[in-house]
Specification:
The protein is about 30% helix and about 15% strand. It is an alpha/beta fold and about 475 residues long. Helix 6 runs parallel beside helix 7.
């Protein structure tokens, strides 16, 4: 299935992805904070994202790309290590003092360290947010306001021109994350409609429909959603400026470009859940010498595949433990995976509401490990959607039921993603789907056992639960 242990790249059969006589590929890894598939190239007619749409046309768009966990630090830990958070140890947010960070044995198995040891010049723009941060071997840390997309492009261009070695740059943008909750004075907008003049022409109120995984047509939520789309539009403008800087530096044709959202939008049933609105993200890949143009892959791919892909593209043979695999075959083979898994532990320290989920080409199973014991969080970054759905007389019945299910989930949820792509109808109790339920349960357990999920061990499970459930004044 998904787990590849102690993998030498030669053993994985990874082919050379670039003519070494012409020099190794550069790598530009771009992330957007809290961006789901709200892009024109993913069929979202409300999104105004011409630069990302153009990037998609140059290479590969993965229709079914997923993060390992829909929470910032755990998600990024999977990108850096090629391992799921339950393996690498980054269960929750780095800055929440949750007591569980990247395990010491994986500190050296991260993208910048592996590439730097092979002669790459390494840099990062914006937040790292995986611990221990001092163990990440970045030559250059560009600490700027990453909503200032013009400044990001300027600083990135300086980095592109900063040496003769092949480079790795990770460009992390704040958009479309909400404004910082601790900002003083508190901003009036949840997401900045404009920031330093970008976007030049914001999307007006009334042009953006409800998010498809919410379908909540309430004025307060529509306003919030419109602001979100404008933050995504600003990020798109920033990507255009960044790629122009790469072109001006003369590096565009010899740079692998990989763009991914770190998880879905900060809206109820999105970020911090295992629903599609949280774990399904955009992933675009331009791999010189490998991909064609206008490729739309149906393969099931994950952010745990990022490190193996970069090792492959950079022709690096290193002995590291991996749970992902290179995306090379996913470009042309839709049967890249039969099953793909995601998970959740916590975002801040609490609530600890662990989930495990798995999907195949059609069905998806979510296992809520503490169902009936505690409740998951009912808001994310101030989203009032659950309250609005409960109070409104206009909430459709299936939407209301889906919201209540998300607020107090059963142990298992089963969805038909072909018929119900945003998971409004739970099939776990349907007689005609019991065989599918059992098959998916078996597949999920097999994945958990193969990846040595620590929550299968009652001692480890209780240790994490006790830490997360303690009172704020407890040590």
């Amino acid at each position: 299935m998904l787990c590849v242990r102690s993998a030498l790249l030669a053993m994985l059969g990874l082919a050379v992805g670039w003519n070494s006589a012409a020099g190794q590929l550069n790598v530009l890894l771009i992330t957007a904070d809290d961006l789901g598939v709200q892009l024109g190239c993913y069929g979202d007619t409300a999104a105004e994202t011409p630069n990302l749409d153009a990037l998609a046309s140059r290479g590969v768009l993965f229709e079914h790309a997923y993060v390992a966990q829909a929470s910032c630090s755990p998600s990024r830990s999977a990108m850096f290590t090629g391992l799921y958070p339950h393996t690498n140890g980054q269960y929750g947010l780095l800055n929440a003092n949750v007591g569980f960070g990247l395990k010491a044995k994986y500190q050296g198995q991260v993208i910048p360290n592996l590439l730097k040891s092979s002669g790459y010049r390494t840099g990062i723009v914006g937040k790292l947010h995986v611990g221990t941060e001092s163990e990440f071997e970045f030559d250059t840390r560009i600490r700027v306001d990453t909503r200032d997309v013009k400044l990001v492009a300027e600083k990135a261009k300086e980095f592109f021109l900063g040496g003769k070695e092949p480079f790795f740059l990770m460009a992390n943008y704040s958009d479309p994350h909400v404004y910082g909750q601790r900002m003083q004075p508190r901003p009036k907008e949840t997401f900045p409609t404009q920031y330093k003049g970008v976007p030049e022409n914001p999307i007006p109120l009334g042009k953006v429909p409800p998010l498809p995984f919410q379908r909540l047509n309430e004025p307060e939520e529509v306003l919030r959603t419109t602001q979100y789309y404008n933050a995504a539009k600003r990020f798109d403008a920033g990507v255009g400026m960044l790629l122009e800087a790469l072109q001006e530096a003369g590096q565009s044709d010899k740079t692998l470009i990989l763009f991914v959202g770190d998880h879905g939008p900060p809206f109820f049933r999105g970020k911090t859940s295992c629903y599609e609105g949280g774990v399904r993200v955009p992933m675009l890949l331009v791999w010189p010498g490998v991909n064609g143009v206008h490729v739309r892959s149906q393969a099931l791919v994950s952010t745990v595949d990022i490190l193996p892909t970069l090792l492959d593209a950079c022709e690096l043979s290193v002995n590291v433990e991996l749970q992902g695999k290179s995306l090379r075959q996913a470009i042309t083979q839709d049967d890249f995976r039969t099953y793909l898994a995601t998970e959740f532990h916590y975002h801040g320290r609490a609530p600890f509401f662990p989930r495990r989920s798995i999907r195949d080409a059609r069905f998806k199973l979510i296992h809520n490990l503490r169902a009936g014991e505690v409740l998951p969080g009912s808001t994310i970054d101030g989203d009032p959607a659950l309250k609005l759905a409960r109070e409104s007389q206009n909430t459709p019945d299936d939407v209301r039921q889906a919201f209540e299910r998300a607020a107090d989930p059963p142990e298992y949820e089963l969805y038909d993603l072909q018929a119900d792509p945003w998971e409004f109808i739970d099939l776990s109790q349907a007689t005609e789907h019991q065989a599918t339920l059992e098959r998916m349960q078996a597949a999920l357990m097999q994945w958990r056992e193969e990846t040595s999920d620590p929550l299968l061990d009652p001692t480890e499970y209780n240790k994490i639960a006790a830490y997360a459930d303690r009172q704020p004044n407890e040590p």
